[in-house]
């Protein structure tokens, strides 16, 4: 199991851009590195959130499933939870959330995770429809997505912050996923309003970046031709 100062990441967001969406790590392997995380399945099969060691998938039909050990992913990150209470939040939109998580600063130069448990007066999420090989680009695949909205829902927002310097390896800034306590809604967060909740934070000083070197497509691909930053900006 990982150490609490380490963020473990398999794959990069950059490899999704040209459509390298093959699953190159199993859930069993990922869970050896932590108990809390986010990711996506092969072919962008839904949106993943791992809480208390249980991996959930919010699929494009609006259903939430617990995933088996053999589920594969092209991209995921995970860590061993050791969150510290930072602040209470009320009537917070994504901007107010970001300001609180950054403690009023405009940026952070290290990776950290934020967990908000509370009552959300509004939640808007998305989940991408699973695609099959040969895979389209990230932008084409992401167009086939389902949008979900819910009012007055209790749940957990799990976010990872990456410094701008690492945009491409991850999403520069905040990458938010959500799961309702009753599993009525989940996925990649597009917008929200938090009525009230507790914001907990966990800093990392180490990024452990794992790459799919056994995947020939990844090893042979020339990323210099991909407009990585712009595509991630538009799709995430």
Automatic annotation (TrEMBL):
Instruction: Write out the pathway annotation from the protein's UniProt entry.
Output: Polyol metabolism; (R,R)-butane-2,3-diol biosynthesis; (R,R)-butane-2,3-diol from pyruvate: step 2/3
**A Gene Ontology BP annotation from the UniProt entry:** acetoin biosynthetic process
- Look up the domain of life of the source: Bacteria
Keyword GTP-binding assigned to the entry: answer is no
The record's catalysed reaction(s) read: (2S)-2-acetolactate + H(+) = (R)-acetoin + CO2
Task: List its EC numbers.
Answer: 4.1.1.5
Per its record, what are the GO molecular function terms? Answer: acetolactate decarboxylase activity
At the top of the EC hierarchy, this enzyme's class is lyase
* Keywords recorded for this protein, A-Z: Acetoin biosynthesis, Decarboxylase, Lyase
> What's a Pfam family in this record?
AAL_decarboxy
Q: Which family does it belong to?
A: Belongs to the alpha-acetolactate decarboxylase family.
Q: What is the protein name given in its UniProt record?
A: Alpha-acetolactate decarboxylase
Q: Which organism is it from?
A: Liquorilactobacillus aquaticus DSM 21051
């Amino acid at each position: 199991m990982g150490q609490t100062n380490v963020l473990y990441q398999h794959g990069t967001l950059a490899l999704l851009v040209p459509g390298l969406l093959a699953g190159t790590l199993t859930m069993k392997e990922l869970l050896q590195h932590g108990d809390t995380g986010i990711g996506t399945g092969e072919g962008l099969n839904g949106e993943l959130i791992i809480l208390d060691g249980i991996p959930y998938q919010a699929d494009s039909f609006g259903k939430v499933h617990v995933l088996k050990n053999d589920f594969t992913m092209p991209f995921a990150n995970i860590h061993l939870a050791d969150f510290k209470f930072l602040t209470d939040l009320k009537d917070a939109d994504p901007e107010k959330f970001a300001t609180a998580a950054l403690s009023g600063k405009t940026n952070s130069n290290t990776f950290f995770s934020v967990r908000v448990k509370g009552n959300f007066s509004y939640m808007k999420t998305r989940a991408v429809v699973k695609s099959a090989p040969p895979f389209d680009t990230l932008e084409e695949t992401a167009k086939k997505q389902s949008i979900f909205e819910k009012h007055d829902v209790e749940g957990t927002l799990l976010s990872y912050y990456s410094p701008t310097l690492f945009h491409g390896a991850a999403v520069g800034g905040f990458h938010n996923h959500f799961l309702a306590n009753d599993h009525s809604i989940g996925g990649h967060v597009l917008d929200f309003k938090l009525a009230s909740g507790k914001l907990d934070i966990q800093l990392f000083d180490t990024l452990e970046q794992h790459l799919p070197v056994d995947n020939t497509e990844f090893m042979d691909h020339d990323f210099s031709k991909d407009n990585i930053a712009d595509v991630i900006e538009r799709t995430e």
